[in-house]
Amino acid sequence: MDQHLLTIIAAFVVIVAVVAVIVFVAIHKRRSQNLRARFGPEYDRVVKQAGDLHRGEDVLQFRTKRREKLPIVALTPSDRSSFMSRWVGIQSRFVDDPRGAVSLADQLVSEVMKARGYPVGDFEQRSADISVDHPVLVENYRTAHDIALHHSRGQASTEDLRKAMVHYHLLFDQLLGNPLPERKEAQG
Question: b or e along 52-90 (b: 16 or more beta carbons within 10 Å of the residue's beta carbon)?
Fold first, then answer.
C-alpha cells in the first residue's frame, strides 16, 4: 500500500473515533438531562449520596426500571373517599393529640401507598419507589418520617409534628390523585 492510502485510512479511523466519542458524550449528556428533569432535587441528592455521577445515575435508572414493573393503580372513588375521611379525622385529632395524629398520618400514607400498588415493607425502598413518581415530595416524606422517628424517641416538638403533618398531607394528596403542583416543596 502506498503512503497516501495509509494516510487516508488513518484519517478516516480518527474521524470515526472522534464521531463515536461525540455521540457517546451526547448520549450520556442527554441521559443526565432527562434524569435531572425527571427527578429534580432527588437527582442531586442521589448523585451526592452515591459519590459519583455515573453511580448516582445508575441508581436512578434502576429505580425507574423497578417502578415501571410495579402495578401502580388509581384508587377507586370509594377508596379515595374513605382515605380522605380518615385523613380529616387524623387532622382534627392533631389539636388534642399531635403525637398520635402524626403516627396515624404515617400509617395512613403507607396504607394509601399499598392500595396504589407500591411495596411498603422497607422505608428506604418505599421512598425510592415514590421518588420516581413524586421526586419533589419524596424529600418531604423523608422529613416527615424522620420527625416521626424522633417523636417515637420523645425528641420531637409540637412544631416538628406540625411540619410532619404538612409533609404527610402533601404526599397524601398526591397519592390520592388530588391535583397539586408536583414541583413545589412543602412550606413548613
Answer: eeeebbebbeebeeebeeeeeeebeeebbeebeebbeeb
Domain boundary among 18, 38, 69: 69
- Cell numbers describing residue 109: 400514607
Specify the pTM: 0.75
- Contact between 105 and 90 under an 8 Å Cβ cutoff? The reply is yes
Instruction: Please indicate, yes or no, whether residues 169 and 87 belong to a single structural domain of this protein.
Output: yes
Does 60 share its domain with 129? no
Q: What is the pLDDT of residues 40-77, one digit of tens each?
A: 889 999 999 999 988 999 999 999 999 989 888 989 99
For residues 31 and 66, give the distance between their C-alpha atoms in angstroms, rounded to a whole number: 17
In a domain, 51, yes or no: yes
